[in-house]
Structure formats: C-alpha cells, structure tokens
Amino acid sequence: MQIISGKTIADEIKVKLKESNGAAGISPCLAIINIGDNKENLLYIGLKKTAVDAIGGQSRIINLAEDTQPEQLLEIIQDLNRDAGVDGILLQLPLSPALEAYREEFLQAIVSHKDVDGFSPLNRGLLMGAEPAFISCAAMACMDVCHKYLKSLEGKKVLLVGNSFDVIQPLALMFIKEACEVNIIPRYYPAAMQDIDIAVVEHGAPLVVKKQGIKPGALLIDAGFHWHQEKVCGNVDRDELADAEGYLLPVPGGMGPLLIAQLMENLCKAARKE
Question: Which region, left, alpha or beta, applies to residue 273 given φ > 0 means left and ψ of -120 to 50 means alpha?
C-alpha cells in the first residue's frame, strides 16, 4: 500500500503560501486562545505557531487560567473580533471541563470571517450551500488527499466512521456534493469496508482496521489517535496492509501535518479578505 506523507504535502503547501504572502506583502496574524495547561493543547499550539512562522505570519498566544469564567472568555473573543490586526481567531479545543458546556456559544462568538478553524455554527451551516466560507481544516485535508490521489470522486463509495462535527459531519456533505455514495457508521467493523473506495476512520481502536475486506485500490484515511504499546498509532494497521494495493494516509505523519497546513490556507484566505 502506498503511504501518503502528510508532512511532505504540508511542507509544499506552506512553501507556496510563504511565497504568495511575500509577493503580496502580507503577514497573516493568528490569535490562539488557550485555557489551562493541557499538555496536548500546548503541543498543538506550538506546532501551529511554527507553521505560522513558516508562512511569514505572526502569532498571538492568549493563555488563560483554568478557572477563567465564560463572560471573561467571551469578552476576549469580542476584543479579537474588533482588532483589525488579527486575521484569524482559534479557540484551542478541548476546553476545560467547566467551560465545555459553553463551547458552542464561544465558537458562535467568533466572527465568521476570522473563524479559520471553520468551527462556528454559521460556517458549518454555510457548507450546506453553494458558497461555503471557511471549512473545517481536517475535512479539507481529507478532501485534498482524495482529489490528489483519486482525481474524480463521482460515483465513489465512501465509508465514514465516527460522528465528529469537525471531520465526519462536514465530510459527509462534501462527499455528497461530489456525487459519492456515502455510508456513515459510529464504529468500525470489517464487513462495512466491502466494496469501499474511500474510508475515513475516526472512531475505532488501535490498529483495528486490518486487511480483511479492503478493496484493491482503495484510499484509507486514518483519523484516529491512540497510545498503543508506548507508541503513537491510529486505527489502521499499517504493517498488515503493507502488501495491499491502494493508498493510506497514516498515523502518525498523515492527518496532523495536513490539518495544520489547511489552517494556514484558511488564515491566508482571511488575511486576503477573500
């Protein structure tokens, strides 16, 4: 199975964005709001800051205490909305347990033209129409890989495993618009893979996707993340699929770098007011 290097594609995207930004004389600014000291959140924020630097942009990291009150966070979001020097606003998820209940309210508070994550209810709703604005970076990453390796998607049989608002839900709409036959299930089981051309597996268990039932030439996108035997892995058993015919965007080295590269695409679009 051909392994798709998300890092290689992401690096190519960032080089082009840096060249384009330099030619246009712009330096996109991304504001990232972080609550508390979640180690994974801090790691992802560091990766995003590095990516912003790579495209010639600027980052503003707003670190808030774990006990930040909802009204305080909403006030900060409104200040960033009004700040002409900020092109994109990102609220790092997941939130602290005390704030999670207000997540939709916070996402809705970010003005749609700065919502570079594509998470606001307005931008999620616009995806249903003919002219969506910002789309979830993870969903865009999946679609870019599909177009790059399969060209035309019309008539393809697609399996989506999961239910997330940032991956599975937007992808369902996007694949429908491409005239695909879409099947959505909450958890992976081998029989569901029968005759599938494209599979995006978000929910599952470590290495649960084996060779059984995989159609020759299929494109598999691993959107899972697990610690297994002291190593990072996804839902797809990459080693068992080594001699299969098809394509795999793996974990690690697949979705993660591409998602951040798509975030940079959205940030540059916001800076250009496109």
Answer: left
Residues spanned by CATH 3.40.50.10860 within the chain? 25-111
| pLDDT tens digits for range 232-250 | 899 999 999 999 999 999 9
Distance CA 178, CA 209 (A): 26
**What's the whole-number average pLDDT of the chain?**
95
Q: Using an 8 Å Cβ cutoff, are 113 and 227 in contact?
A: no
Please report where in the chains the tokens 């494209």 appear, as a residue. Answer: 198
The fold of 137-255 is: Rossmann fold (3.40.50)
Cα within 13 Å of Cα(199), Cβ side: 33
Please report, for residues 23, 39, 248, the alpha-carbon distance to residue 199 in angstroms, rounded to integers and kept in the order given: 38, 30, 10
Strands 246-249 and 2-3: parallel
Closest CA to 142 of 53, 262, 236: 262
Domain with CATH 3.40.50.720 in the chain: 137-255
